[in-house]
Amino acid sequence: MYSMQGLSFREYLQFFHNIAKNIFSIDEVLAHKPEIPDIEHPLPLFDDYLQRGYYPFAKFNDYNIRLQQIINQTLESDIPLYAEMNIAVGRKLKQMLAIIAQSVPFKPNFSKIAGLIGVSRNNIADYCLLMEQAGLILQLRNSVADIHSLGRVEKIYLDNTNLIYALASENTNIGNVRETFFFNQTKVKHETFASPISDFEIEGMTFEIGGRSKEQKQIQSAKNGFVVKDNIEFGYSNVIPLWHFGMIY
């Protein structure tokens, strides 16, 4: 089995717009290295990427229909077949994904989910892991783990921003979109955890995600803190444009 990540913003630029750019390391991103001299204003393209640029088949006009079909097949057929479960489980997975989509970022309450879809609470963690492996959700864990298990799941997101617009069109909270993009892109090369004081923690660095007016309050106590802002084209000091994190793979 081969797991393939969806397109980064960098790959989207090349695949959809023939704009080739090198990969930037996270250290280069934090040093404000990414730039796209070919484009005067990258934000409109970034907005398009967030809505329909993660999967290559977005080149086709029936993108939303194709994406819905793939989601349904993954839940109703692929996962049950892979996990050797019966087809009824596929329907439970579909119900569960709908619940997550309506309230992302979702703070896990496995007992509540189990009651809503009519399964044992003990099955919910397994279902989440299967959907995570299938590229439908992301589970944000804390960094505290032991020899027996991974860290506790603090939040559950849809896997990427295109899924938000496809499954949660009535819940396209911009804060959720920003966090989902950041987590989806950084996890490819870095272990990304929930921060005890802010949004995310990567290798001892703390990241607070927000819009243009986001302040520094949440990271004041962080030894190495950064504010990641949407809707800005250029960074300064410890303020990094959100779209820069789409250039790291």
Describe the fold and architecture:
- This protein is of the alpha/beta class.
- The chain contains nine helices and seven strands.
- It has helices at residues 9-17, 26-30, 43-52, 63-82, 87-103, 110-117, 121-133, 161-167, 174-186; strands spanning 137-141, 153-158, 192-194, 200-202, 205-210, 225-229, 239-241.
- The chain has a five-stranded mixed β-sheet with strand order 3-4-5-6-7, covered by helices on one side.
- α3 packs across α8 (161-167), α4 (63-82) crosses α5 (87-103) and α6 packs across α7.
- The radius of gyration is 18 Å and the shape is globular.
* Structure summary, number of beta strands: 7
What is the overall number of helices? 9
Please outline the major beta sheet: 5 strands, mixed
The termini sit apart by 21 Å
Strand content: 5-15%
| Helix content bin | 40-55%
* Overall geometric form: globular
- Give the neighbour order of strands across the main sheet: 3-4-5-6-7
H/E series, N to C? HHHHHHHEEHHEEEEE
Low-confidence stretches: none
Domain module tally: 1
What is the mean predicted local confidence, pLDDT? 92
As a whole number of angstroms, the C-alpha radius of gyration is 18 Å
Class derived from helix and strand content: alpha/beta
